[in-house]
């Protein structure tokens, strides 16, 4: 399981969303939309705030990025890297090797 948020992405959140050190960003899966080549029936959502049932997390530049228990199944099959590309966030899902 790999959940990577680059320093550039963390700084993007700080600048674009006025986040400060100690803030939390939750990612979650929604049933609609589609993540090309990875999860065609799901899209990735995001909210700001802390939760008690954090399953997967990473802290970068003072911001904690996380998934709750009910979305942790994603990491059974995929790794996720959050980065910045052309001044916007990019989300790269890569299948785990068997």
List keywords for this structure.
98 residues; 3-stranded mixed sheet; Hypothetical Protein Aq_1857, Chain: A
> What is the count of helical runs?
2
Number of strands: 7
| Main beta sheet | 4 strands, mixed
Work out the radius of gyration. Answer: 13 Å
Name given to the CATH homologous superfamily: HesB-like domain
Mean pLDDT: 88
Q: Please give the alpha-carbon distance between the first and last residues.
A: 12 Å
> H/E element string?
EHEEEEHEE
Helix content: 10-25%
Bulk shape: globular
Strand order of the largest sheet: 3-2-5-4
Strand content: over 45%
Structure notes:
The protein has one domain: HesB-like domain (Hypothetical Protein Aq_1857, Chain: A, Sandwich), CATH 2.60.300.12. The chain contains two helices and seven strands; from the N terminus they run βαββββαββ. The chain has helices spanning 7-17, 74-77; strands spanning 3-5, 24-30, 43-48, 54-60, 63-68, 78-85, 88-95. A four-stranded mixed β-sheet has the order 3-2-5-4.
């Amino acid at each position: 399981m790999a959940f990577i948020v680059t320093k550039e992405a963390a700084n993007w959140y700080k600048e674009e969303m006025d986040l400060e050190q100690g803030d939390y960003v939750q990612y979650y899966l929604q049933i609609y939309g589609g993540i090309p080549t990875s999860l065609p029936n799901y899209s990735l959502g995001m909210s700001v705030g802390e939760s008690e049932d954090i399953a997967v997390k990473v802290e970068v530049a003072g911001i904690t990025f996380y998934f709750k228990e009910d979305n942790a199944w994603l990491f059974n099959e995929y790794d996720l890297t959050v980065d910045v590309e052309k001044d916007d966030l990019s989300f790269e899902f890569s299948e785990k090797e068997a």
